[in-house]
């Protein structure tokens, strides 16, 4: 399985090559990959249903004990199955949707890479592996939203999605690290048995908040929901696959996976159920305000994601059963509806539902699939969506905290969703025929397979929900906190409170549909309030980021080399000075073991330096520098360094000659700075010099380590056959350093030569040198 | 002697930095020279200063008879002296070329000179 997933990335990379060989048939061919994974998963079905957990270990880096372990239990199986099945269908569908598109190979690369990342995410047992795949899905999602990269809006939406989800990813990483510290393991299969320890741990609140931020951003929960509708800039197969069926459910998957480890506390229950319920109502409310078919579907996806979060928050067995059913139902009908939306877009040339009507004669099969999927979205019998909604109402009535609030929000979401379903799926197909930019026609078979199949599954599982008993029981056992009693699903629950709530929401939903236009007109008045939503906050944040970056670039990188130097020195002074004075309280003692002639040499050195600074004549400054250099050579002589003294004398002589030769043709000294600037520079210079002195005194009086040159002293003659130890070090023990030094000198010499060769008369930036002029010298 | 040298080196550093902060490009070069000398001395002094015991092996012996000055920092400083000369000669020629071309000694003016 690991090989299949990692190999899938290789297949993704090969897509352009395959496309060159097989042309338009490539998507079909590549669909074989998820299709074979589906078969493999089906083969594991008996094991999973029996409640077993498959732990596939594969030594990745055996030397470092890093294993790529996959954990397949009911939850992972369900997600992997959705990813593979819908993945195969989406690939087949996109073959026709993007037929002839020049970037089809790129699309195939990214969507296959996404598919494999998503599989890795839901199957990973190790937190780090999970995180890597999690980020990979964010990146592939970014590439897919921005697929149409010549469109500014698509690029902006892609970046927004990336920033929101990757920002949440950072919080998630912090949460994972704390989780591993608190639970003592990086392995999910071990962490979910550590629930007692984790919930009592002092890091619990912090790690829960971090994990929740990660999950909420990924799954577009309020107030991070705004990126999802914008992500609809992606091609429709992407919206169907990433932004409804799979990627946005990664956060939900993570919450479900960690439910046994972190769930059950008041913090968990209240935050998840309230955020979920709020997201649910917000999504449904925003959905009816739009007429763009994909945006309406996106907002209803937010509604569904909110419902799933809320059910995980409630956390009773009934709620978890409802969670699994609703998850499955949503993936089926929403995938189908998005693909229908893509077909409508292709066939009519518009995405506005108010511009379509009476299409059922032109495209009967599409209409049938759309109706079935929409009825499931609306939660009407006999579809799986109805079973899910009944179970949802039942669990809301079981909620332990804020039951009233959640119930009201759930009811609002239910009837608004019903209205959305009717508008999205029924309006385009029924009623009077409207003129559309293109003449509508039935979609080709490859595009029809996917929505029809998914809609059929909704219907079949709705009629015989008992088919799901085993799977639901296996999933719920894996994610629940306590024992699981028998799970029995059925379409008809008898006349009870949930059914009455359903009926009431049906009536309200029909009313909303009836007066949709009037309602939208009234809601348009809320526009100024809506404009201050979380998306405005995101925009403000991004603007602020850019402003801060500009400000600090102007401050720190202003192009004045002086300012860079001052800044560096100030940081040095602050950090080193602080560490020296406050951390180490250095032991500084002045020794006065000085002979007179030594003091004279040091005095000459210092006066040479100071005179070189204050002289206004260039020649005098050079002479003062010479005095300083020769006194340094004298110091070397006095303190047992004859080689240094010789070198210093030679270099100093050459330097003075060079400076005299060159500086005479250079500008005179000019006084360019103001007195205030001089004072500022003087303060910085004196502080740095003082700190250097302090550091040296501290080092000189500190404890000394044994010197490392004893080996060289002892072996210079026996091994190096030289009597001058310094020379032996240079040409023998550290010969490579000397070789490097020679390279540096050679480079400097070449640079000097090159610059002296070109005369200024040859060069003028506005009139590049002509070959004739260049040859004169 | 090390204490006295520490103070002298501090003054050399201060002088070097003051010169490097000037706007005149020739002063920058002088600052660079002061800085490389100060750094060489710093390495030499921090390793400890020994009077009258150069790291030499007398003829006929395989090792020096008594304690000698540490040869390793001397080798390092020797390399550094030569390299700083290379850097200095390059810098001096660069400054001269720059002055010839842009006719400005002021670093602030050079910043905005695109010629």
TrEMBL record, chain A:
Domain of life: Bacteria
Domain NADH-Ubiquinone oxidoreductase (complex I) chain 5 N-terminal: 58-107
Membrane-spanning segments: 6-22, 29-55, 75-95, 107-124, 130-147, 159-181, 201-217, 268-289, 296-314, 320-344, 365-384, 404-426, 447-475, 495-516, 564-582, 594-612, 619-639, 645-664, 684-702, 738-756
Alphabetically ordered keywords of this record: Antiport, Cell membrane, Ion transport, Membrane, Transmembrane, Transmembrane helix, Transport
GO molecular function: antiporter activity
GO BP terms: monoatomic ion transport
Main location: membrane
Residues annotated as domain MrpA C-terminal/MbhE: 677-758
Domain (MrpA C-terminal/MbhD): residue spans on this chain: 604-668
Domain NADH:quinone oxidoreductase/Mrp antiporter transmembrane: start-end pairs: 124-412
Keyword Nuclease: no
Localisation per UniProt entry: Cell membrane; Membrane
Membrane topology per record: Multi-pass membrane protein
CC per GO annotation: plasma membrane
Record's keyword annotation contains Disulfide bond: no
Protein name, per record: Putative monovalent cation/H+ antiporter subunit A
Native species: Vreelandella zhuhanensis
Automatic annotation (TrEMBL), chain B:
Recorded topology in the membrane: Multi-pass membrane protein
Record's keyword terms, sorted: Cell membrane, Membrane, Transmembrane, Transmembrane helix
Regions crossing the membrane: 6-21, 28-49, 75-95
Cell membrane among keywords: yes
Gene3D superfamilies: 1.10.287.3510
Gene Ontology CC annotation, any one: plasma membrane
Tagged with keyword Transmembrane helix: yes
Pfam families associated with the record: Oxidored_q2 (PF00420)
InterPro entries: CPA3_antiporter_subunitC, NUOK/Mnh_C1-like
Annotated compartments: Cell membrane
Domain of life (superkingdom): Bacteria
Family designation: Belongs to the CPA3 antiporters (TC 2.A.63) subunit C family.
Record-given protein name: Na+/H+ antiporter subunit C
């Amino acid at each position: 399985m690991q090989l299949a997933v990692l190999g899938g990335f290789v297949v993704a990379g090969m897509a352009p090559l395959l496309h060159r060989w097989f042309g338009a048939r490539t998507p079909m061919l590549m669909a074989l990959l998820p299709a074979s994974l589906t078969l493999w998963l089906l083969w594991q079905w008996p094991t999973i249903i029996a409640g077993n957990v498959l732990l596939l270990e594969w030594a990745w880096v055996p030397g470092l004990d890093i294993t790529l372990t996959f954990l397949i239990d009911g939850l992972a199986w369900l997600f992997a199955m959705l990813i593979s099945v819908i993945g195969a269908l989406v690939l087949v569908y996109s073959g026709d949707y993007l037929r002839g598109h020049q970037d089809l190979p790129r699309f195939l690369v990214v969507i296959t890479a996404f598919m494999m990342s998503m599989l890795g995410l839901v199957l990973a047992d190790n937190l780090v592996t999970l995180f890597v795949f999690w980020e990979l899905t964010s990146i592939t999602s970014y590439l897919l939203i921005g697929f149409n990269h010549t469109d500014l809006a698509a690029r902006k939406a892609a970046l927004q999605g990336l920033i929101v989800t990757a920002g949440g990813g950072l919080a998630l990483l912090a949460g994972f690290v704390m989780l591993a510290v608190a639970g003592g393991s990086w392995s999910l299969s071990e962490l979910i048995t550590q629930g007692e320890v984790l919930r009592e741990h002092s890091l619990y609140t912090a790690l829960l908040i971090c994990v929740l931020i990660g999950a909420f951003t990924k799954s577009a929960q309020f107030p991070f929901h705004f990126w999802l509708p914008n992500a609809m800039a992606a091609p429709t197969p992407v919206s169907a696959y990433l932004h409804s069926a799979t990627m946005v459910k990664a956060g939900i998957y993570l919450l479900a996976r960690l439910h046994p480890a972190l769930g059950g506390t008041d913090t968990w229950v209240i935050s998840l159920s309230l955020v979920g319920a709020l997201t649910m109502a917000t999504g449904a409310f925003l959905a009816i305000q739009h007429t763009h078919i994909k945006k309406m579907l996106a907002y209803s996806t937010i509604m569904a994601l909110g419902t799933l979060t809320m059910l995980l928050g409630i956390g009773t067995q009934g709620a978890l059963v409802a969670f699994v059913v609703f998850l499955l139902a949503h993936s089926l009908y929403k995938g189908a509806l998005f693909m229908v939306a893509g077909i409508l877009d292709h066939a009519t040339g518009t995405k506005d539902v108010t511009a379509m009507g009476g299409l059922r004669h032109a495209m009967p099969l599409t209409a049938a699939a759309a109706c079935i999927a929409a009825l499931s979205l609306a939660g009407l019998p006999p579809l799986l969506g109805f079973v899910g909604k009944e179970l949802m109402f039942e669990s809301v009535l079981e909620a332990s905290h804020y039951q009233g609030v959640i119930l009201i929000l759930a009811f609002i979401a239910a009837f608004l969703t019903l209205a959305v379903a009717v508008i999205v799926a029924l309006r385009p197909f029924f009623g009077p025929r409207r003129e559309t930019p293109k003449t509508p026609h039935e979609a080709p078979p490859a595009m029809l397979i996917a929505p029809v199949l998914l809609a059929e599954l909704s219907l079949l599982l709705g009629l015989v929900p008992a088919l799901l008993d085993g799977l639901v029981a296996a999933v719920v056992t894996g994610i629940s906190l306590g024992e699981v009693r028998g799970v029995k699903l059925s379409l008809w629950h008898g006349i009870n409170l949930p059914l009455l709530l359903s009926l009431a929401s049906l009536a309200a939903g029909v009313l909303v549909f009836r007066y949709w236009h009037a309602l939208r007109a009234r809601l348009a008045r809320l526009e100024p309030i809506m404009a201050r939503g979380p998306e405005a906050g995101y925009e403000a944040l991004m603007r602020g980021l850019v402003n801060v970056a500009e400000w600090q670039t102007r401050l720190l990188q202003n192009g004045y080399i002086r300012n860079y130097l001052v800044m560096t020195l100030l940081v040095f002074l602050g950090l080193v000075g602080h560490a020296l004075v406050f951390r180490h309280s250095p032991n500084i003692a002045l020794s006065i073991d000085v002979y007179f002639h030594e003091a004279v040499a040091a005095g000459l050195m210092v006066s040479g330096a100071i005179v070189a600074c204050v002289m206004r004549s260039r020649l005098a400054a050079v002479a003062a520098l010479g005095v300083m250099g020769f006194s340094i050579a004298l110091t070397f002589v006095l303190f047992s360094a004859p080689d240094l003294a010789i070198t210093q004398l030679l270099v100093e002589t050459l330097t003075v000659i060079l400076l005299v030769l060159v500086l005479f043709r250079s500008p005179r000294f000019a006084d360019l700075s103001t007195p205030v600037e001089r004072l500022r520079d003087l303060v910085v210079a004196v502080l740095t010099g003082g700190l250097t002195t302090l550091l040296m005194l501290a080092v000189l009086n500190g404890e000394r380590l044994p010197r490392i040159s004893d080996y060289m002293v002892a072996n210079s003659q026996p091994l190096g056959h030289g009597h001058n130890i310094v020379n032996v070090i240079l040409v023998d023990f550290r010969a490579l350093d000397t070789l490097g030094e020679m390279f540096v000198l050679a480079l400097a010499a070449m640079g000097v030569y090159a610059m002296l060769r070109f005369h200024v008369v040859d060069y003028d930036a506005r009139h590049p040198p002509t070959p004739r002029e260049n040859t004169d010298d | 002697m090390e204490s006295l040298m520490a103070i002298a080196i501090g003054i050399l550093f201060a002088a070097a930095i003051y010169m490097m902060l000037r706007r005149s490009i020739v002063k920058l070069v002088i600052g660079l020279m002061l800085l490389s000398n100060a750094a060489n001395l710093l390495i030499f002094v921090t390793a400890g200063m020994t009077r009258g015991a150069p790291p030499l092996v007398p003829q006929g012996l395989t090792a020096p008879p008594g304690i000698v000055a540490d040869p390793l920092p001397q080798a390092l400083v020797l390399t550094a002296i030569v390299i700083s000369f290379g850097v200095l000669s390059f810098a001096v020629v660069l400054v001269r070329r720059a002055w010839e071309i842009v006719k400005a000694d002021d670093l602030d003016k050079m910043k905005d000179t695109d010629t």
